[in-house]
Amino acid sequence: MQFHLTFRSSRVPRTLLRPRLTTLLSAAALAWAAAGPAQAQVTGGQSILTFSQDAVSTLTLIGVTVAAAGTAGTVTPGVAFSFPVAGGTVLDNQVASVDTDPNAGVTLTRGSTVITLYRFKLDVAAKRLRGDINVNGSVSPGEDIYEVRSIVETPATPPWRDLAATGLYLTPGALKKLGDALGVPEYLRPTVAQVDFGRLDGRLQLRSREGAAQH
To answer: Domain residue spans in the chain?
Structure first.
């Protein structure tokens, strides 16, 4: 008895390959389109730091006066100060960080001690307001100054976005550094730690990395 083995070709007919190829190309095109243009970025705007009444009362109790420094403007003396926005980042169409003008800040003065807080950076994900702390010429860069309890982004007329950071509480590190420099008594520091120092509000301009304003 003889057996005849017949082997069929494993080649796939072209008529079956075409739909597969079309599907793969379509998927690639969709993936490329989904990536879309480069992420936008914050290119300018204005921010206002407003101290709460509790913060003003606490600073007055300690004997500290507050004033604008550098390119910062005074909105309300001793209470509210404006800073130009220098830049920032956007992730998934949401503002991720905001950088103020590095030359804008506020000074805290008590006697011969002058502290300048400046070069602010709002980190949305970490809920931190960072900045450089200059104590009589000695600089500590990129310090976590405030813990931020709430950050809310609101659409505005394109290419603008509004951002409100509220509930500003001194971080333990900032409280120690500022408290030591200003001579805040140890027994008073736990009370200062519970003070909501106010809010930071920003009107931000967004543009794509190609330079077109966001709509």
So the answer is: 40-208
